[in-house]
Known about the structure:
Helix content is about 40%, strand content about 30%.
Amino acid sequence: xxxxxxxxxxxxxxxxxxxxxxxxxxxxxxxxxxxxxxxxxxxxxxxxxxxxxxxxxxxxxxxxxxxxxxxxxxxxxxxxxxxxxxxxxxxxxxxxxxxxxxxxxxxxxxxxxxxxxxxxxxxxxxxxxxxxxxxxxxxxxxxxxxxxxxxxxxxxxxxxxxxxxxxxxxxxxxxxxxxxxxxxxxxxxxxxxxxxxxxxxxxxxxxxxxxxxxxxxxxxxxxxxxxxxxxxxxxxxxxxxxxxxxxxxxxxxxxxxxxxxxxxxxxxxxxxxxxxxxxxxxxxxxxxxxxxxxxxxxxxxxxxxxxxxxxxxxxxxxxxxxxxxxxxxxxxxxxxxxxxxxxxxxxxxxxxxxxxxxxxxxxxxxxxxxxxxxxxxxxxxxxxxxxxxxxxxxxxxxxxxxxxxxxxxxxxxxxxxxxxxxxxxxxxxxxxxxxxxxxxxxxxxxxxxx
Length: 450
């Protein structure tokens, strides 16, 4: 065999090996597609190469075209080519030459416009025989047997490289994917999910919660005035009779001094009139009026003195003084009966839950509640619902919510007042389908106006 006869075959074999190497080293499918439509030209000449993918249900999708950076999906050529490849199928691994006479009449017009003379379908399959897609090659000259032989070897390497780049589903997901590809399997999956949707479960909702005192005692301002100072700190434990806060006494002391002077004037006028009445009978009518005025002044003195004695507010019972900050109150004017702080029993607490209207489920007193504190979310505390509000109110966060109260089941394991977390409230029995689709159904009903 002469050297001149061996060189073309050696060159073709070397090119074949190089293309297989580039295909196997491609990092992703776009990189592989570039090799398929552009680098294959080094092995055999063609006018244009198209890489296409075989999808579910026999659908064809063009992924790359030689000489083009992107594929315009709505281009007439691309749409015609996808119809052509969907019409002409090649079984097996060998390339198939396509002639104009073998095409249906609707496809011949596009052939005359876009195909030079000869077309070649090159199927690509994985090692397991799974059809992945293929290449579409066109040129003016016919394909020789030697070219088709080399191309067949190259397509085998291309198919393996493409198969290796495809995402793999593992375990039961792979089984479900395989089952869904069969008609009977789809029916079985539909029946399985329908039965799964009928699985009975308990309704539940998650809502913000806070530990609050069960029976707090409100300590209010005894009269209108300004808070002068506090004798306790927030969350301080106090005993019955301990001082809590002091009101400013400047106004009361001035009022008491004025009331005493007015009383002295009223007593002097009454004494003068009563002495004069012994001599002038006509002044006896003024005595009764001046006596009433004197008693009025005395009552004003007594009332002001009582208020002055109440400037120091003491604890009516033992408990924890619950309020935010001392500086929020000092120098602040308060009205009669305005709440300043609360006294709570630290060993007697409940759970207050703000259940948003959007997450509300049907619950009744006695329902089970699990409290997950932010300080210890791994150990939930069990509670029992005791009260539900019928009317939703806006929370400090601006969310419309129902206010619920729950009592701890374990009386000896009550957390500190003021701790916050999340509470899960359990409602009535329902199905898994309703539990999952409850909110979408509610949104759909509001959107449709039903």
